[in-house]
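4.2 Preliminary Data

To establish feasibility before requesting continued support, the project team ran the inverse folding procedure on a target of 480 residues. The structure was first converted into the token representation described in Section 3, and no sequence information of any kind was made available to the design step. The complete token record follows.
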């Protein structure tokens, strides 16, 4: 049993305003695996005040960038040293399969290194040459910290979401209140332990698990200067409204319903092997999952048969078992949501190829669903338009390349996607036509030095690398 009976506020563990602890239930069998304090508005007030005081005092924001970079390198080294424990905690509380939580650890290192390399090369201050060489005026352009950042993250990939925000925000000199989901109280409690060891100035960082109501209190707080949010599009709209009313800076990484375009010349076996990870990573509870599979009519049944074989071969079960590929959904309500979408797909007239709404045999105690594939799906169906956030794939036929691009773009979302072809340059040309923030060719992995974010209802702003770092700074121009 893991217990955190205090809250990490401003770099110290303090008594919560509400001493009642929240039970953390295992998604696998509903056993209680931890008990953790949850933040209330009074705790938010304390954390924001500490952040404001630290920012105004200036010890962190006025430190040379090299010092801030060195501190975040220490944090990254601590995280690397504890990668196995982090992976275990996320599987324990989230139900994410062990292969996924372990495989994600090197990605966290690449993500952090990309930010820190960008910070080393960042134009924190530069002098512009005047456009008129006879002018006696020169401009000095600075990039300075924004202030107090409220970083709000979802439950599905907690460490990745947390570090994608706190590393650039802190490197830029901001003070941060990280609001995490109650479901992630164990892994995020350990994150706070690691941050405590880094030795940041008092008040610079807080890590608070809290419910939605307390989250809204945080993002509405008058002493918060920027909101960095990852989560649902619905919540993002509410946060954008609050930010607009209060003129807060805001970045939003929201939902997705990404398309994988399999071109007629693609190697179907390789494409489907890649989609095993591109479409079903993290139990399908991933905003970047490519869950709309677009197949040419000439090879449609071949693609459907290959996906059926793939999905039916996947081991569903205890996330701690080494051969498990799909674990449970995080909560019973999420399990019910996914099962309802599967039933909806049947009612909409899609052809059920694999899976179904039934709970896998022998796993009734957990939040399990059966991985499912639908064929004969029209892109107008709800199962093709709405984010299900579970291991449910829909296969949509297209007539030609223009039709494939049209279908891929026929979505309110635009976060991720993929193109599969034996001709890489042709695939790249198709990828350029898809209205999405990130798209891969033949299953390429994410490059953390490039910006990540979404078009349309998938968000505002970008994360990763120099572009992501820049979203935590303000421009100041000094003319001399």
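Position-by-position output of the design step:
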């Amino acid at each position: 049993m893991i217990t955190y009976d205090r809250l990490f506020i401003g770099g110290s563990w303090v008594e919560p305003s509400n001493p009642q602890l929240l039970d953390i239930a295992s998604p696998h069998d509903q056993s209680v695996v931890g008990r953790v304090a949850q933040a209330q508005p009074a705790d938010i007030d304390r954390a924001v005040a500490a952040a404001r005081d630290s920012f105004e005092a200036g010890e962190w924001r006025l430190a040379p960038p090299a010092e801030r970079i060195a501190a975040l390198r220490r944090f990254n080294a601590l995280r690397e040293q504890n990668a196995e424990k982090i992976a275990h905690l996320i599987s324990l509380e989230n139900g994410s399969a062990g292969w996924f939580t372990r495989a994600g650890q090197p990605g966290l290192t690449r993500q952090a290194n990309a930010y820190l390399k960008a910070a080393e090369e960042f134009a924190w201050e530069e002098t512009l040459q005047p456009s008129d060489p006879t002018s006696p005026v020169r401009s000095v352009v600075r990039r300075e910290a924004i202030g107090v950042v409220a970083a709000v993250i979802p439950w599905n990939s907690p460490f990745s979401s947390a570090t994608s925000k706190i590393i650039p925000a802190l490197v830029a000199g901001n003070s941060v209140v990280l609001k995490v989901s109650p479901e992630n109280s164990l892994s995020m409690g350990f994150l706070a332990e690691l941050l405590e060891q880094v030795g940041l100035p008092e008040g610079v960082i807080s890590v608070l698990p809290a419910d939605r109501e307390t989250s809204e209190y945080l993002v509405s707080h008058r002493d918060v200067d920027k909101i960095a949010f990852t989560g649902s599009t619905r919540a993002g709209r509410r946060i954008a409204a609050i930010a607009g009313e209060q003129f807060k800076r805001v970045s939003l990484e929201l939902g997705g319903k990404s398309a994988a375009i399999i071109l007629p010349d693609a190697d179907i076996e390789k494409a489907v092997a890649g989609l095993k990870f591109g479409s079903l990573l993290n139990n399908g509870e991933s905003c970047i999952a490519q869950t709309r599979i677009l197949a040419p009519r000439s090879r449609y049944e071949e693609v459907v048969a290959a996906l059926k074989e793939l999905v039916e071969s996947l081991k569903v079960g205890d996330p701690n078992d080494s051969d498990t590929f799909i674990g449970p959904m995080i909560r019973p309500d999420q399990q019910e949501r996914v099962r309802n979408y599967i039933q909806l797909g049947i009612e909409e007239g899609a052809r059920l190829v694999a899976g179904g709404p039934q709970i896998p045999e022998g796993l009734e105690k957990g939040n399990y669903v059966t991985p499912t594939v639908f064929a004969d799906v029209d892109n107008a169906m709800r199962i093709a338009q709405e984010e299900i956030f579970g291991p449910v794939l829909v296969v949509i036929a297209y007539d030609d390349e223009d039709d494939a691009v049209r279908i891929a773009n026929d979505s309110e979302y635009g976060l991720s996607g993929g193109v599969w072809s034996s001709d890489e340059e042709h695939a790249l040309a198709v990828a350029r036509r898809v209205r999405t923030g990130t798209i891969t060719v033949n299953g390429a992995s994410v490059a953390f030095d490039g910006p990540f974010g979404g078009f349309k209802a998938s968000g505002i702003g970008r994360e990763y690398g120099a572009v992501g770092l820049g979203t935590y700074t303000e421009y100041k121009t000094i003319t001399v």
